[in-house]
Design a protein that fits this description.
By secondary structure, the chain is α/β, with parallel strands linked by helices.
């Protein structure tokens, strides 16, 4: 069956390559049914260190307009309008206000956490290599717990549709020591995701990182399938060539674990599509 990729980034985010149209062309080339354009929403309200990882607020209206233009130009593929919106507790209300003018345009919103305020630090990066020594110094297990506590708060807002790269702190091989304790926190998070009826993405970009795993881990994916928590797919592509990265392999594996359907979005309404 034709699949879809709901997590992509373009040169607008300053750490990827390719225009929006380049990603659409790549998705057509690999015969996807849909592609979601989901560049980072401007990070202007986060601590200054993170501003460079996203377009500016002035850029965002043009981003939406360009996707709309391409939707009219390309009728051989469904193009979805999205954004990956960081949750940062101190500025969440401000982000909601900034996003309000665009809510009618979105097909879905990815909720992610790339920074958390913790232990007298205004924001510790979740997935930057240079932050790994600091996280080890402050406590790996404690960092994971704080990360998941922030994800819990994010889910409870009922603002997002899809939880992005759920176990992102493992990117550079930073794994918990007290696995049982962290697993219990993951189960608490999944309880909340179920309660709020959110979708979780399986993000294949982790297979290219030091950890060499999808986000989330196989154990969490199996738990999602057991609980029938809706799942969608994302490559987190930062170049057009990465669109749909290892999706067929992922579907083959997850079908063996009992996955029978994946979800699509249109105008923030979810539909479940049986796997063939």
């Amino acid at each position: 069956m034709k699949l879809w990729d709901y997590h992509t980034h373009t040169s607008l985010c300053n750490h990827a390559t390719g225009t929006i149209e380049d990603y659409v062309k790549a998705a057509v080339e690999v015969k996807l049914a849909e592609v979601g354009i989901s560049d980072h929403f401007p990070m202007d309200l986060l601590p200054e260190h993170f501003h460079i990882y996203a377009m500016t607020l002035n850029d965002f209206p043009n981003y939406i307009d360009e996707i709309k233009r391409l939707k009219l130009k390309y009728n051989q593929i469904q193009i979805r309008i999205s954004s990956e919106v960081d949750y940062f507790p101190e500025v969440f209300d401000g982000y909601k206000k900034l996003l309000t003018p665009y809510l009618d345009d979105f097909d879905y919103i990815i909720g992610s956490i790339h920074a958390i305020p913790w232990k007298n630090h205004d924001a510790i990066p979740v997935d930057e290599l240079q932050a790994v020594p600091l996280i080890r110094e402050l406590g790996v297990d404690q960092f994971y717990l704080e990360y998941y506590n922030n994800l819990l708060r994010m889910v409870k807002t009922n603002f997002y549709d899809v939880v992005g790269h759920l176990d992102l702190p493992k990117k550079y091989g930073l794994v918990p020591y007290d696995t049982d304790r962290i697993w219990q926190k993951v189960l608490q998070l999944l309880d909340q995701i179920e309660s709020n009826d959110l979708t979780v993405e399986i993000n294949t970009s982790g297979l290219k990182k030091r950890i060499k795993q999808e986000y989330p881990s196989e154990d969490i994916i199996k738990e999602l399938i057991t609980r029938k928590i809706p799942i969608t797919l994302g490559s987190d592509a930062h170049s057009p060539q990465a669109i749909g990265f290892r999706f067929e392999e992922l579907i083959t594996k997850t079908k063996k674990w009992g996955l029978t359907e994946i979800c699509q979005y249109s105008k923030r309404e979810r539909s479940l599509v049986p796997l063939k």
